Amino acid sequence: MLYPLKFHPLLKRKIWGGERLAAKSTEHLHDIGESWEISAVEDNISVVSNGLLADNDLQELIEVYMGELVGDKVYEQFGIEFPLLIKYIDATDNLSVQVHPDDETARERHNAYGKTEMWYVVDADPGASLILGFNRETDKSEYLQALHAGRLPELLHTETVHPGDTFFVPAGLVHAINKGCFIAEIQQTSDITYRIHDYNRLGPDGQPRELHTDLATDVIDYSYHPRHRVNYTPTDNTPVQLVKCPYFTTNLLVLDRDLERDYFRLDSFVIYMCLQGRFTITTGECDPVLVKQGETVLIPACFKNITLYPDEVTRLLEIYID
Which candidate in 20, 109, 151, 195 is catalytic? Predict the structure, then answer.
């Protein structure tokens, strides 16, 4: 029988990793840059950590439960491959400037999905920022001239960020997370990244990290987009939509009392990322499941009515495919 599923986080050590994710490490690592909370990326399949299905991986469960776990519509489209990658990112240094291909290009070049994503800023040091697109209209020629002359940062748009800020990052948008940002990221299941600028940084092997200039040039959106930040107003005990796109829908929930969620019209799994506080999930069909700050839980699609009981003021992201 299915129930709300937790997974062992897949921790990724990075040269820019920090301390915020150290509590997730049983080895007391202190340079963790990413925690993949739910993943179906090849060789990085999430494994259940709670209940009777513990030690089964996500792909095995989809093979057995199919639409009951992910939703009939989702299963018909994606089969046994879970369509989203859910992660936390802790940046104590600037990440590389990069871009992701769309579905068509990724399919042609890599036989894979493209990568559209969103960022929710969980925490940020004073003055922390993100790079999102260009600060004016440009084109391939100007971009390449700036890149090869070491002047690419002069073309890039930078946004100072604060906790709660949200950004939509479609495929083709040049972007980077800068130091001091702690981010919740929701994205398509894809690990394809084209790195275009890395501040002449050396990797763990002492060599410059690989750049993907040729691959990136033809997928970049060179147009100017003046607004990247998602405008929304948090409302207690009511779902507030942050992002809705063909790949995922993400809502913000801020709870200080019990909340019933009705998913009768939704043919999809639901994911909760607990950003603050703690809450208990009841379904009426299985044992209650406690979810603490920093934990992520997958609600199978077969559960159409659940209740969330916060122990204190609790903030969470609710993610599904609509």
Answer: 195
